[in-house]
Design a protein that fits this description.
Distance between the termini: 70 Å
Number of helices: 23
Helix content: 25-40%
Shape: globular
Largest sheet: 6 strands, parallel
Number of strands: 20
Length: about 575
Amino acid sequence: MKMNGARIMLECLKKEGVDTVFGYPGGTVINIYDELFSFKEIRHILPRHEQAGTHAADGYARATGKVGVAIATSGPGATNTVTAIAPAYMDSIPMVIVTGQVPTALIGNDAFQEVDIIGITRPCTKHSFLIRDVKDIAMIMKKAFYIARTGRPGPVLVDFPKDIQVAMGEFAYPDSVEIRSYKPTVEGHPRQVEKAFKMILESHRPVLYVGGGVVLGDASEQLTSLARNLGIPVTTTLMGLGSFPGDDPLSLGMLGMHGAYCANMAMTHSDLIIAVGSRFDDRVTGKLATFAPHAKIIHVDVDPTSIKKNVRVDLPIVGDVRDVLTQMLKLTDKVKDKAAEYVSALSPWHEEISDWKEKHPLSYKSSTTIIKPQFVIQKLRELSDEDAIISTDVGQHQMWTAQFFKFNRPRTLLTSGGLGTMGYGLPAAMGAQAAFPGRQVITICGDGGVQMNIQEMATLVQNKLPVKIVILNNNFLGMVRQWQELFFDKRYSQTCMELPIDYIKLADAYGAKGFLATKPDDVEKVIRQGFAENGPVIMEFKIAREEKVLPMVPAGASLNEMVLNA
Protein backbone atom coordinates (compact mmCIF):
# COMPACT_ATOMS: atom_id res chain seq x y z
CA MET A 1 0.00 0.00 0.00
CA LYS A 2 1.36 3.40 -0.99
CA MET A 3 1.49 6.25 1.52
CA ASN A 4 3.49 9.40 2.07
CA GLY A 5 6.73 9.44 4.03
CA ALA A 6 5.18 11.08 7.08
CA ARG A 7 2.60 8.32 7.35
CA ILE A 8 5.30 5.67 6.82
CA MET A 9 7.20 7.18 9.77
CA LEU A 10 4.16 6.85 12.03
CA GLU A 11 3.52 3.30 10.87
CA CYS A 12 7.14 2.48 11.77
CA LEU A 13 6.61 3.83 15.28
CA LYS A 14 3.47 1.74 15.60
CA LYS A 15 5.36 -1.38 14.49
CA GLU A 16 7.95 -0.70 17.21
CA GLY A 17 5.22 -0.65 19.85
CA VAL A 18 5.46 3.08 20.50
CA ASP A 19 2.35 4.30 22.31
CA THR A 20 3.46 7.81 23.33
CA VAL A 21 5.56 10.49 21.66
CA PHE A 22 6.56 13.93 22.91
CA GLY A 23 6.84 16.54 20.22
CA TYR A 24 6.53 20.15 19.11
CA PRO A 25 5.21 21.02 15.62
CA GLY A 26 6.87 23.33 13.12
CA GLY A 27 7.23 23.96 9.41
CA THR A 28 9.44 20.99 8.56
CA VAL A 29 7.40 18.46 10.54
CA ILE A 30 3.96 19.81 9.71
CA ASN A 31 3.31 16.85 7.41
CA ILE A 32 3.99 14.44 10.29
CA TYR A 33 1.54 16.40 12.42
CA ASP A 34 -1.05 16.41 9.66
CA GLU A 35 -0.88 12.60 9.63
CA LEU A 36 -0.95 12.51 13.45
CA PHE A 37 -4.26 14.34 13.38
CA SER A 38 -6.05 11.13 12.37
CA PHE A 39 -3.50 8.58 13.66
CA LYS A 40 -5.15 7.44 16.88
CA GLU A 41 -2.81 4.56 17.77
CA ILE A 42 -0.14 6.85 19.19
CA ARG A 43 -0.67 9.37 21.98
CA HIS A 44 1.05 12.69 21.36
CA ILE A 45 1.96 14.99 24.24
CA LEU A 46 2.76 18.62 23.43
CA PRO A 47 5.38 20.09 25.79
CA ARG A 48 6.00 23.82 26.02
CA HIS A 49 9.67 23.49 24.98
CA GLU A 50 11.55 20.95 22.87
CA GLN A 51 14.19 20.42 25.56
CA ALA A 52 11.45 19.47 28.01
CA GLY A 53 9.77 17.20 25.49
CA THR A 54 13.01 15.32 24.91
CA HIS A 55 13.64 15.08 28.68
CA ALA A 56 10.12 13.68 28.97
CA ALA A 57 10.95 11.00 26.39
CA ASP A 58 14.06 10.24 28.48
CA GLY A 59 11.98 9.94 31.67
CA TYR A 60 9.50 7.71 29.85
CA ALA A 61 12.36 5.45 28.73
CA ARG A 62 13.98 5.23 32.16
CA ALA A 63 10.72 4.42 33.89
CA THR A 64 9.52 1.82 31.37
CA GLY A 65 12.65 0.35 29.82
CA LYS A 66 11.18 1.09 26.38
CA VAL A 67 12.61 3.40 23.74
CA GLY A 68 11.48 7.00 24.29
CA VAL A 69 10.48 9.03 21.23
CA ALA A 70 10.64 12.79 20.68
CA ILE A 71 9.82 14.91 17.63
CA ALA A 72 11.07 18.42 16.87
CA THR A 73 11.13 20.71 13.88
CA SER A 74 14.32 21.87 12.16
CA GLY A 75 16.63 24.69 13.19
CA PRO A 76 15.93 25.99 16.71
CA GLY A 77 13.51 23.14 17.37
CA ALA A 78 16.26 20.63 16.70
CA THR A 79 18.95 22.53 18.61
CA ASN A 80 16.63 22.82 21.62
CA THR A 81 16.71 19.03 21.92
CA VAL A 82 20.50 18.88 22.30
CA THR A 83 20.56 19.67 26.02
CA ALA A 84 18.24 16.71 26.56
CA ILE A 85 19.98 14.33 24.13
CA ALA A 86 23.35 14.79 25.85
CA PRO A 87 22.29 13.49 29.31
CA ALA A 88 20.52 10.54 27.65
CA TYR A 89 23.78 9.71 25.91
CA MET A 90 25.83 10.02 29.11
CA ASP A 91 23.37 7.85 31.05
CA SER A 92 22.81 5.29 28.24
CA ILE A 93 19.08 5.90 27.76
CA PRO A 94 17.38 4.36 24.69
CA MET A 95 15.71 7.09 22.65
CA VAL A 96 14.86 7.94 19.05
CA ILE A 97 14.67 11.63 18.23
CA VAL A 98 13.04 12.57 14.92
CA THR A 99 13.93 16.04 13.67
CA GLY A 100 12.48 17.81 10.67
CA GLN A 101 14.90 19.06 8.03
CA VAL A 102 14.64 21.40 5.06
CA PRO A 103 14.05 19.75 1.66
CA THR A 104 17.02 17.73 0.43
CA ALA A 105 17.67 20.16 -2.44
CA LEU A 106 18.18 22.98 0.07
CA ILE A 107 20.46 21.16 2.52
CA GLY A 108 23.72 23.09 2.71
CA ASN A 109 22.23 26.30 1.29
CA ASP A 110 21.61 28.00 4.66
CA ALA A 111 17.89 27.73 4.08
CA PHE A 112 15.42 29.11 6.60
CA GLN A 113 15.65 27.13 9.86
CA GLU A 114 18.36 24.84 8.54
CA VAL A 115 21.03 23.48 10.87
CA ASP A 116 23.31 20.48 10.56
CA ILE A 117 21.72 18.72 13.51
CA ILE A 118 23.54 15.48 12.71
CA GLY A 119 26.85 17.30 12.92
CA ILE A 120 25.81 19.14 16.07
CA THR A 121 24.71 15.97 17.89
CA ARG A 122 27.37 13.59 16.58
CA PRO A 123 29.32 13.68 19.90
CA CYS A 124 26.21 12.97 21.98
CA THR A 125 24.27 10.38 20.00
CA LYS A 126 24.92 6.68 19.62
CA HIS A 127 24.21 7.01 15.91
CA SER A 128 22.35 9.29 13.52
CA PHE A 129 20.63 8.99 10.15
CA LEU A 130 19.66 11.44 7.39
CA ILE A 131 16.78 10.03 5.34
CA ARG A 132 17.36 10.77 1.64
CA ASP A 133 14.75 8.54 -0.02
CA VAL A 134 11.22 7.55 0.95
CA LYS A 135 12.04 3.88 0.30
CA ASP A 136 14.68 3.99 3.07
CA ILE A 137 12.40 5.20 5.89
CA ALA A 138 11.31 1.79 7.20
CA MET A 139 14.81 0.27 7.24
CA ILE A 140 16.33 3.36 8.83
CA MET A 141 13.70 3.38 11.57
CA LYS A 142 14.22 -0.34 12.19
CA LYS A 143 17.96 0.27 12.54
CA ALA A 144 17.40 3.33 14.76
CA PHE A 145 15.33 1.41 17.30
CA TYR A 146 17.66 -1.60 17.16
CA ILE A 147 20.73 0.53 17.82
CA ALA A 148 18.99 2.57 20.54
CA ARG A 149 17.93 -0.43 22.64
CA THR A 150 20.73 -2.97 22.15
CA GLY A 151 24.26 -3.21 23.54
CA ARG A 152 24.91 -0.11 25.59
CA PRO A 153 21.64 1.78 24.97
CA GLY A 154 21.62 5.36 23.80
CA PRO A 155 19.87 8.08 21.79
CA VAL A 156 19.65 7.83 18.01
CA LEU A 157 18.73 10.83 15.89
CA VAL A 158 16.81 10.56 12.60
CA ASP A 159 16.83 13.71 10.43
CA PHE A 160 13.78 13.73 8.16
CA PRO A 161 13.72 16.22 5.23
CA LYS A 162 10.38 17.79 4.38
CA ASP A 163 10.31 16.57 0.76
CA ILE A 164 10.80 12.95 1.89
CA GLN A 165 7.81 13.34 4.19
CA VAL A 166 5.67 14.34 1.21
CA ALA A 167 7.02 11.72 -1.22
CA MET A 168 4.95 8.60 -1.82
CA GLY A 169 6.24 5.08 -1.30
CA GLU A 170 5.34 1.52 -0.37
CA PHE A 171 5.38 0.64 3.34
CA ALA A 172 6.98 -2.66 4.28
CA TYR A 173 8.53 -2.92 7.72
CA PRO A 174 11.41 -5.41 8.04
CA ASP A 175 11.08 -8.20 10.61
CA SER A 176 14.74 -7.98 11.61
CA VAL A 177 17.86 -6.03 10.85
CA GLU A 178 21.53 -6.88 10.54
CA ILE A 179 24.23 -4.25 10.73
CA ARG A 180 27.63 -5.62 9.77
CA SER A 181 29.61 -3.05 11.75
CA TYR A 182 27.43 -3.27 14.86
CA LYS A 183 27.29 -6.59 16.69
CA PRO A 184 27.19 -6.07 20.46
CA THR A 185 28.44 -8.91 22.63
CA VAL A 186 25.59 -10.17 24.80
CA GLU A 187 26.87 -13.39 26.33
CA GLY A 188 29.74 -13.10 28.78
CA HIS A 189 32.54 -15.54 28.03
CA PRO A 190 31.96 -18.58 30.30
CA ARG A 191 35.67 -19.01 31.02
CA GLN A 192 36.00 -15.39 32.12
CA VAL A 193 32.92 -15.80 34.33
CA GLU A 194 34.44 -18.92 35.92
CA LYS A 195 37.68 -17.05 36.59
CA ALA A 196 35.71 -14.22 38.18
CA PHE A 197 33.79 -16.63 40.38
CA LYS A 198 37.06 -18.23 41.51
CA MET A 199 38.46 -14.79 42.37
CA ILE A 200 35.32 -14.06 44.43
CA LEU A 201 35.66 -17.26 46.47
CA GLU A 202 39.32 -16.45 47.15
CA SER A 203 38.59 -12.92 48.36
CA HIS A 204 38.22 -11.79 51.99
CA ARG A 205 36.92 -8.24 51.60
CA PRO A 206 34.76 -8.18 48.43
CA VAL A 207 32.49 -5.34 47.34
CA LEU A 208 29.90 -5.35 44.57
CA TYR A 209 30.16 -1.93 42.94
CA VAL A 210 26.98 -1.48 40.89
CA GLY A 211 26.03 1.11 38.29
CA GLY A 212 23.12 2.06 36.09
CA GLY A 213 23.85 -0.82 33.73
CA VAL A 214 22.14 -3.18 36.17
CA VAL A 215 18.97 -1.06 36.06
CA LEU A 216 19.08 -0.66 32.28
CA GLY A 217 19.82 -4.35 31.84
CA ASP A 218 16.89 -5.41 34.05
CA ALA A 219 19.35 -7.40 36.16
CA SER A 220 18.38 -6.24 39.65
CA GLU A 221 16.85 -9.57 40.61
CA GLN A 222 20.00 -11.48 39.60
CA LEU A 223 22.27 -8.99 41.34
CA THR A 224 20.25 -9.15 44.56
CA SER A 225 20.28 -12.95 44.57
CA LEU A 226 24.03 -13.11 43.97
CA ALA A 227 24.80 -10.60 46.71
CA ARG A 228 22.60 -12.39 49.23
CA ASN A 229 23.75 -15.90 48.27
CA LEU A 230 27.41 -14.94 48.73
CA GLY A 231 27.00 -12.31 51.47
CA ILE A 232 28.78 -9.62 49.46
CA PRO A 233 28.14 -5.99 50.46
CA VAL A 234 26.79 -3.76 47.69
CA THR A 235 27.48 -0.13 46.94
CA THR A 236 25.86 1.71 44.05
CA THR A 237 26.49 4.75 41.96
CA LEU A 238 23.84 7.45 41.71
CA MET A 239 22.54 5.78 38.54
CA GLY A 240 22.55 2.37 40.24
CA LEU A 241 20.30 3.35 43.14
CA GLY A 242 17.33 0.99 43.32
CA SER A 243 19.18 -1.87 41.63
CA PHE A 244 19.72 -3.33 45.12
CA PRO A 245 17.33 -2.65 48.02
CA GLY A 246 18.58 0.38 49.93
CA ASP A 247 17.30 -0.97 53.26
CA ASP A 248 18.98 -4.40 52.87
CA PRO A 249 21.63 -5.12 55.57
CA LEU A 250 24.17 -5.70 52.76
CA SER A 251 23.56 -2.26 51.28
CA LEU A 252 26.33 0.28 51.74
CA GLY A 253 24.37 3.01 49.99
CA MET A 254 25.89 5.30 47.39
CA LEU A 255 29.65 5.77 47.14
CA GLY A 256 31.79 8.62 45.85
CA MET A 257 31.91 12.37 46.32
CA HIS A 258 28.75 12.53 48.42
CA GLY A 259 28.56 8.85 49.23
CA ALA A 260 28.29 7.13 52.58
CA TYR A 261 31.39 6.87 54.75
CA CYS A 262 31.03 3.09 55.01
CA ALA A 263 30.83 2.74 51.21
CA ASN A 264 33.96 4.77 50.56
CA MET A 265 35.89 3.03 53.34
CA ALA A 266 34.80 -0.37 52.06
CA MET A 267 36.09 0.47 48.58
CA THR A 268 39.37 1.74 50.04
CA HIS A 269 39.97 -1.41 52.12
CA SER A 270 38.49 -3.97 49.74
CA ASP A 271 40.63 -6.74 48.26
CA LEU A 272 38.20 -7.43 45.39
CA ILE A 273 35.84 -5.06 43.57
CA ILE A 274 33.24 -6.64 41.32
CA ALA A 275 32.13 -3.73 39.12
CA VAL A 276 28.86 -4.45 37.34
CA GLY A 277 27.42 -2.03 34.78
CA SER A 278 29.43 0.92 36.05
CA ARG A 279 32.16 3.02 34.47
CA PHE A 280 34.36 4.28 37.32
CA ASP A 281 33.28 7.90 36.92
CA ASP A 282 35.50 10.55 38.54
CA ARG A 283 32.73 11.35 41.05
CA VAL A 284 33.04 7.73 42.22
CA THR A 285 36.79 7.17 42.22
CA GLY A 286 38.11 10.41 43.69
CA LYS A 287 41.89 10.59 43.22
CA LEU A 288 42.66 7.80 40.77
CA ALA A 289 46.20 7.20 42.05
CA THR A 290 44.85 6.15 45.46
CA PHE A 291 41.61 4.49 44.38
CA ALA A 292 41.09 0.98 45.83
CA PRO A 293 44.82 0.45 46.49
CA HIS A 294 44.45 -3.12 47.82
CA ALA A 295 41.84 -4.46 45.41
CA LYS A 296 41.81 -6.61 42.36
CA ILE A 297 39.08 -5.48 39.97
CA ILE A 298 36.58 -7.49 37.95
CA HIS A 299 34.72 -5.31 35.47
CA VAL A 300 31.49 -6.51 33.82
CA ASP A 301 29.98 -4.30 31.11
CA VAL A 302 28.23 -4.69 27.78
CA ASP A 303 30.30 -1.82 26.39
CA PRO A 304 33.92 -2.89 25.83
CA THR A 305 35.06 0.74 25.54
CA SER A 306 34.04 1.36 29.17
CA ILE A 307 36.38 -1.33 30.47
CA LYS A 308 39.90 -0.16 31.41
CA LYS A 309 39.00 3.39 30.32
CA ASN A 310 39.51 4.94 33.75
CA VAL A 311 41.07 2.30 36.02
CA ARG A 312 43.20 -0.81 35.67
CA VAL A 313 41.16 -4.01 35.48
CA ASP A 314 42.40 -7.48 36.45
CA LEU A 315 39.57 -9.40 34.81
CA PRO A 316 37.33 -7.89 32.10
CA ILE A 317 34.03 -9.53 31.14
CA VAL A 318 32.27 -8.07 28.11
CA GLY A 319 28.61 -8.99 28.01
CA ASP A 320 25.10 -8.20 29.11
CA VAL A 321 25.16 -7.89 32.90
CA ARG A 322 22.03 -9.98 33.28
CA ASP A 323 23.64 -12.85 31.36
CA VAL A 324 26.87 -12.65 33.35
CA LEU A 325 25.09 -12.50 36.73
CA THR A 326 22.88 -15.42 35.71
CA GLN A 327 25.98 -17.45 34.90
CA MET A 328 27.45 -16.58 38.30
CA LEU A 329 24.25 -17.64 40.05
CA LYS A 330 24.41 -21.01 38.32
CA LEU A 331 28.00 -21.45 39.51
CA THR A 332 26.87 -20.57 43.04
CA ASP A 333 24.19 -23.25 42.91
CA LYS A 334 26.79 -25.84 41.89
CA VAL A 335 28.93 -25.18 44.99
CA LYS A 336 26.36 -24.43 47.68
CA ASP A 337 28.48 -25.85 50.50
CA LYS A 338 31.54 -23.86 49.46
CA ALA A 339 29.37 -20.74 49.07
CA ALA A 340 28.03 -21.19 52.61
CA GLU A 341 31.59 -21.48 53.94
CA TYR A 342 32.53 -18.35 52.04
CA VAL A 343 29.64 -16.38 53.55
CA SER A 344 30.69 -17.48 57.03
CA ALA A 345 34.30 -16.49 56.38
CA LEU A 346 33.20 -12.94 55.52
CA SER A 347 32.04 -12.27 59.11
CA PRO A 348 35.11 -10.16 60.03
CA TRP A 349 34.55 -8.03 56.92
CA HIS A 350 30.89 -7.47 57.78
CA GLU A 351 31.86 -6.52 61.34
CA GLU A 352 34.33 -3.95 60.04
CA ILE A 353 31.68 -2.47 57.76
CA SER A 354 29.19 -2.36 60.64
CA ASP A 355 31.71 -0.38 62.66
CA TRP A 356 32.05 2.16 59.85
CA LYS A 357 28.26 2.43 59.57
CA GLU A 358 27.95 2.99 63.29
CA LYS A 359 30.87 5.40 63.49
CA HIS A 360 29.74 7.77 60.73
CA PRO A 361 26.15 7.14 59.59
CA LEU A 362 24.42 9.47 57.18
CA SER A 363 22.95 12.06 59.53
CA TYR A 364 22.10 15.72 60.01
CA LYS A 365 21.38 18.09 62.87
CA SER A 366 17.64 18.26 63.38
CA SER A 367 15.83 21.50 64.16
CA THR A 368 12.49 22.46 65.67
CA THR A 369 12.51 25.91 64.06
CA ILE A 370 14.05 25.53 60.59
CA ILE A 371 13.09 22.95 57.95
CA LYS A 372 16.01 20.66 57.21
CA PRO A 373 15.94 19.31 53.64
CA GLN A 374 16.97 15.83 54.77
CA PHE A 375 13.90 15.74 57.02
CA VAL A 376 11.68 16.55 54.04
CA ILE A 377 13.23 13.71 52.03
CA GLN A 378 12.72 11.26 54.89
CA LYS A 379 9.09 12.31 55.26
CA LEU A 380 8.53 11.95 51.52
CA ARG A 381 9.94 8.42 51.73
CA GLU A 382 7.76 7.61 54.72
CA LEU A 383 4.52 8.91 53.19
CA SER A 384 4.94 7.99 49.51
CA ASP A 385 3.79 4.80 47.82
CA GLU A 386 6.16 1.83 47.80
CA ASP A 387 6.32 1.90 44.00
CA ALA A 388 6.48 5.69 43.66
CA ILE A 389 8.70 7.03 40.88
CA ILE A 390 11.01 9.83 41.96
CA SER A 391 12.73 12.20 39.58
CA THR A 392 15.19 14.86 40.67
CA ASP A 393 16.69 17.93 39.23
CA VAL A 394 20.41 18.56 39.80
CA GLY A 395 22.06 20.09 42.82
CA GLN A 396 21.99 19.66 46.59
CA HIS A 397 18.46 18.23 46.62
CA GLN A 398 19.62 15.50 44.20
CA MET A 399 22.30 14.35 46.63
CA TRP A 400 20.03 14.58 49.68
CA THR A 401 17.53 12.42 47.79
CA ALA A 402 20.24 9.90 46.93
CA GLN A 403 21.40 9.79 50.55
CA PHE A 404 18.12 9.71 52.46
CA PHE A 405 15.35 8.28 50.27
CA LYS A 406 16.42 4.59 50.33
CA PHE A 407 15.39 3.26 46.93
CA ASN A 408 14.36 -0.40 46.99
CA ARG A 409 13.26 -0.95 43.40
CA PRO A 410 14.85 -0.35 40.00
CA ARG A 411 13.49 2.33 37.67
CA THR A 412 12.10 4.34 40.58
CA LEU A 413 14.82 7.03 40.50
CA LEU A 414 15.13 9.20 37.40
CA THR A 415 18.02 11.63 37.54
CA SER A 416 20.62 13.18 35.27
CA GLY A 417 23.79 11.50 36.49
CA GLY A 418 26.56 11.82 33.92
CA LEU A 419 25.78 15.29 32.58
CA GLY A 420 24.07 16.79 35.64
CA THR A 421 21.43 18.71 33.68
CA MET A 422 19.46 21.31 35.59
CA GLY A 423 15.88 21.47 34.36
CA TYR A 424 15.67 17.67 33.98
CA GLY A 425 13.47 16.75 36.93
CA LEU A 426 10.05 18.18 36.08
CA PRO A 427 9.83 17.03 32.42
CA ALA A 428 11.32 13.61 33.25
CA ALA A 429 8.54 13.16 35.81
CA MET A 430 6.09 14.23 33.12
CA GLY A 431 7.34 11.42 30.89
CA ALA A 432 7.15 8.85 33.69
CA GLN A 433 3.61 9.92 34.61
CA ALA A 434 2.53 9.64 30.98
CA ALA A 435 3.86 6.08 31.00
CA PHE A 436 2.26 5.17 34.33
CA PRO A 437 -0.86 7.29 34.86
CA GLY A 438 -1.90 5.24 37.90
CA ARG A 439 1.39 5.44 39.81
CA GLN A 440 2.59 8.15 42.14
CA VAL A 441 5.25 10.31 40.48
CA ILE A 442 7.17 12.89 42.50
CA THR A 443 9.83 15.28 41.28
CA ILE A 444 12.21 16.79 43.83
CA CYS A 445 13.73 20.07 42.70
CA GLY A 446 15.65 23.07 43.91
CA ASP A 447 14.44 26.60 43.37
CA GLY A 448 17.12 27.06 40.69
CA GLY A 449 16.54 24.01 38.52
CA VAL A 450 12.76 23.98 38.73
CA GLN A 451 12.59 27.35 36.98
CA MET A 452 14.47 26.04 33.95
CA ASN A 453 11.44 24.10 32.71
CA ILE A 454 8.65 25.44 34.93
CA GLN A 455 6.57 26.09 31.79
CA GLU A 456 5.76 22.36 31.72
CA MET A 457 3.25 22.98 34.50
CA ALA A 458 0.93 23.83 31.61
CA THR A 459 1.61 20.45 30.00
CA LEU A 460 0.88 18.64 33.25
CA VAL A 461 -2.44 20.42 33.72
CA GLN A 462 -3.53 20.11 30.08
CA ASN A 463 -2.77 16.37 29.98
CA LYS A 464 -4.06 15.65 33.49
CA LEU A 465 -0.67 14.32 34.64
CA PRO A 466 -0.79 14.48 38.47
CA VAL A 467 2.94 14.94 39.12
CA LYS A 468 3.78 16.12 42.64
CA ILE A 469 6.48 18.81 42.47
CA VAL A 470 8.56 19.24 45.62
CA ILE A 471 10.64 22.44 45.73
CA LEU A 472 13.37 22.64 48.39
CA ASN A 473 13.76 26.40 48.38
CA ASN A 474 16.85 27.99 49.94
CA ASN A 475 17.00 30.99 47.57
CA PHE A 476 20.45 29.87 46.52
CA LEU A 477 22.07 27.90 43.75
CA GLY A 478 22.85 25.60 46.62
CA MET A 479 25.58 23.27 45.37
CA VAL A 480 27.66 26.06 43.85
CA ARG A 481 27.12 28.11 47.01
CA GLN A 482 28.39 25.19 49.09
CA TRP A 483 31.61 25.05 47.08
CA GLN A 484 31.97 28.82 47.39
CA GLU A 485 31.61 28.49 51.16
CA LEU A 486 34.07 25.63 51.55
CA PHE A 487 36.69 26.49 48.94
CA PHE A 488 36.26 30.15 47.93
CA ASP A 489 36.14 31.94 51.32
CA LYS A 490 32.36 32.44 51.17
CA ARG A 491 32.49 34.67 48.10
CA TYR A 492 28.93 33.99 46.97
CA SER A 493 29.33 35.21 43.41
CA GLN A 494 25.99 35.12 41.52
CA THR A 495 24.53 32.23 43.52
CA CYS A 496 22.05 34.18 45.61
CA MET A 497 18.50 34.12 44.23
CA GLU A 498 16.76 36.57 46.53
CA LEU A 499 13.87 37.58 44.27
CA PRO A 500 10.84 36.13 46.06
CA ILE A 501 8.72 33.89 43.85
CA ASP A 502 5.30 32.91 45.09
CA TYR A 503 5.16 29.31 43.88
CA ILE A 504 1.67 28.90 45.31
CA LYS A 505 0.35 31.71 43.11
CA LEU A 506 2.36 30.28 40.23
CA ALA A 507 0.66 26.90 40.66
CA ASP A 508 -2.71 28.65 40.73
CA ALA A 509 -1.87 30.58 37.57
CA TYR A 510 -1.35 27.27 35.76
CA GLY A 511 -4.55 25.81 37.18
CA ALA A 512 -2.79 23.57 39.70
CA LYS A 513 -2.69 23.47 43.51
CA GLY A 514 0.14 24.75 45.68
CA PHE A 515 1.05 24.29 49.36
CA LEU A 516 3.75 25.99 51.42
CA ALA A 517 5.72 24.82 54.47
CA THR A 518 7.80 27.34 56.42
CA LYS A 519 8.45 25.41 59.65
CA PRO A 520 9.11 21.75 60.54
CA ASP A 521 5.60 21.21 61.89
CA ASP A 522 4.21 22.06 58.42
CA VAL A 523 6.16 19.40 56.54
CA GLU A 524 4.02 16.31 57.04
CA LYS A 525 0.77 18.27 56.68
CA VAL A 526 1.87 19.78 53.34
CA ILE A 527 3.01 16.42 51.98
CA ARG A 528 -0.27 14.79 52.94
CA GLN A 529 -2.22 17.66 51.37
CA GLY A 530 -0.21 17.42 48.17
CA PHE A 531 -0.52 13.66 47.90
CA ALA A 532 -4.28 13.85 48.46
CA GLU A 533 -4.82 16.01 45.36
CA ASN A 534 -5.76 14.31 42.09
CA GLY A 535 -3.93 16.75 39.83
CA PRO A 536 -0.46 18.28 39.62
CA VAL A 537 0.73 20.00 42.81
CA ILE A 538 3.57 22.25 43.88
CA MET A 539 4.78 21.66 47.44
CA GLU A 540 7.27 24.33 48.49
CA PHE A 541 9.50 23.92 51.55
CA LYS A 542 11.47 26.91 52.83
CA ILE A 543 14.59 25.08 53.97
CA ALA A 544 17.69 26.03 55.97
CA ARG A 545 19.49 28.37 53.61
CA GLU A 546 23.09 27.28 54.19
CA GLU A 547 22.59 23.56 54.79
CA LYS A 548 25.35 21.54 53.13
CA VAL A 549 25.50 18.11 51.51
CA LEU A 550 27.82 16.03 53.67
CA PRO A 551 29.89 13.92 53.74
CA MET A 552 31.92 15.18 50.84
CA VAL A 553 35.13 14.13 49.10
CA PRO A 554 36.79 17.34 47.87
CA ALA A 555 37.88 17.45 44.25
CA GLY A 556 41.25 15.74 43.82
CA ALA A 557 41.10 13.98 47.20
CA SER A 558 41.03 10.25 47.90
CA LEU A 559 37.81 8.47 48.84
CA ASN A 560 38.95 8.10 52.46
CA GLU A 561 39.68 11.85 52.77
CA MET A 562 36.10 12.84 53.43
CA VAL A 563 34.81 16.08 54.89
CA LEU A 564 32.40 14.74 57.50
CA ASN A 565 31.50 17.97 59.29
CA ALA A 566 31.88 21.59 58.33
